[in-house]
Specification:
A five-stranded mixed β-sheet has the order 2-1-3-10-4, sandwiched between helices. A five-stranded mixed β-sheet has the order 7-6-8-5-9, with helices on both faces. The protein folds into three domains: 118 residues, Periplasmic binding protein-like II (D-Maltodextrin-Binding Protein, domain 2, 3-Layer(aba) Sandwich), CATH 3.40.190.10; 82 residues, Periplasmic binding protein-like II (D-Maltodextrin-Binding Protein, domain 2, 3-Layer(aba) Sandwich), CATH 3.40.190; 87 residues, Porphobilinogen deaminase, C-terminal domain (Double Stranded RNA Binding Domain), CATH 3.30.160. Helix 8 packs parallel to helix 9. Helix 1 links the parallel strand 1 and strand 2. The protein contains ten helices and 13 strands. It has 306 residues and is α/β, with parallel strands linked by helices.
Length: 306
């Protein structure tokens, strides 16, 4: 019996993800035992500042991957939307699980939907992507920052920190909190983050045995979507804390990618889409980003970091 050590953050959602990866690996490899190693990250430790004021990228992932690089774990599990598009040296994305729900959701305290919140209604979000799109669709609303894990954010909402909060549907469902959802926000209003709803697993590039085990267990359509979206964001020069969104859908051997980049206040929007063969997923994402860069998308990304 072989043992695989799996590094993960220690939040309830991160542990849910880690256990699902462990289950998938055990289902494919009957000879495998999986041990979970919890890691505390910068994003976990620093709760009094917005994400965009922390390290530029990887605040929830770099320290988990560091355990793999150091040889303290064989693999690391991430919410792939938090993972940097240019991975640390020596690390590769070995597998992804099947994609969960991609939408964002509203959990309303004083109103059930974004449309029914009054002027000045406070919507809590720690995401520039959500903020920009909400303000574009509903400029009468106010977006207020919030940090913490899902349960902590909901406690702050219930205590009156905001009139509503926007979170990823996948996380809410995975934590058994779907009964709190008051609105599933249409992607036309708030397009999801790159790789939202996808759990990713990294390993060392030179650990060929582990890489082979991961490859045998991954979900093909989710991997194609992730490759397209991540290639788009990488070419754009963005990260998980910029007002940029993309969603790839796979149907048979075809893939469709839709993406948008916004000004932080939602006042400017550059949106486009592309379709092609699944085998060209990453190239299609890259091509879409190049088109949008020609339309001024890179400028919007730079402005948000100024």
């Amino acid at each position: 019996m072989s043992t695989l050590e799996l590094a993960t953050r220690g939040s309830p959602l991160a542990l849910w993800q880690a256990h699902r990866v462990a289950e998938r690996l055990r289902a494919v490899h009957a000879d495998l035992e999986v041990e979970i190693v919890e890691v505390r990250t910068e994003g976990d430790r620093v709760q009094d500042r917005p994400l965009e004021q922390l390290s530029q990228t990887g605040v929830f992932t770099k320290e988990v991957d560091a355990r793999v690089i150091a040889g303290d774990a064989h693999v690391a599990v991430h919410s792939l939307k938090d993972q940097v598009t240019t991975l640390p040296d020596g690390i590769v994305l070995g597998m992804v699980l099947g994609r969960g729900p991609v939408e964002d959701v509203l959990i309303g305290r004083t109103a059930a939907t974004l449309a029914t919140l009054p002027a000045g209604g406070r919507v809590a979000t720690g995401s520039l992507r959500r903020r920009a799109q909400i303000l574009r669709a509903y400029p009468r609303l106010e977006c207020v920052p919030i940090r913490g894990n899902v349960e902590g954010r909901l406690k702050k909402l219930d205590a009156g920190a905001a009139d509503a909060i926007v979170l990823a549907r996948a996380g809410i469902v995975r934590l058994g909190l779907a009964n709190r959802i008051t609105e599933i926000i249409a992607p036309d209003v708030v397009l999801p983050a790159v790789s939202q709803g996808i759990v990713g697993v990294t390993c060392r590039a030179d650990d060929l045995d582990t890489a082979a085990r991961l490859h045998a267990a991954e979900d093909g359509p989710a991997r194609a979507a992730a490759d397209a979206e991540r290639a788009w964001l990488c070419r754009l020069g963005g990260g998980c804390n910029v007002p940029a969104a993309a969603h790839a859908t796979v149907s048979g051997d075809r893939i469709h990618v839709r993406a948008r980049v916004l000004a932080v206040d939602g006042g400017k929007l550059i949106e486009d889409e592309i379709e092609g063969a699944v085998v060209d997923a990453a190239a299609l994402g890259d091509a879409l980003a190049r088109t949008q860069i020609d339309q001024g998308a890179a400028e919007l990304v730079r402005e948000c970091r100024a």
